[in-house]
Predict the 3D structure of the following.
Amino acid sequence: WMYLREIVQLLLVAISLHFGSLEVRRQNHFTYGAIIEVAALFLGIFICMQPALQILAEQGGSLGIRTPSQFFWTTGGLSSVLDNAPSYLVFFQPARSMPDGPAPGYMGGVEVTFLTAISLGAVFMGAMTYIGNGPNFMVKAVAEGSGVRMPSFFGYMLYSCTILLPILVLTDWLFLR
């Protein structure tokens, strides 16, 4: 069952290519360029982060991250410039090494409040940059490939910081304090 999701997705791609209209793909200027670009970037990220995950499994408790709010902001900060999935994994390891707390619920060896904070930080703050979330990067590549002018990396960050940072502060205050 481990790779069922990937098998189903590839099967759906094959069905679409077989039964879908080649003319429609041509009219939409469909190419695999953006998908290949994103896949190469994230394959490199996942390969390069393996040593860091091993180190964090051993030394993660010494990072000094102790509260849900700290997990939210540190996971989110990394997720903004990396990707949400590896950022989640990076901070999942230190959360597993936390001493037992007052909360009764644990999932995967992690206290639920920490797991919630890590999840929220990874997902919400991934939207802060193009590379923080795979779809952001892919939409940018597709849009630019179609001739649409997109904001620069820092231009996008200026916009996202103006809109998202107040929402993220509110999220922390409402749900993690």
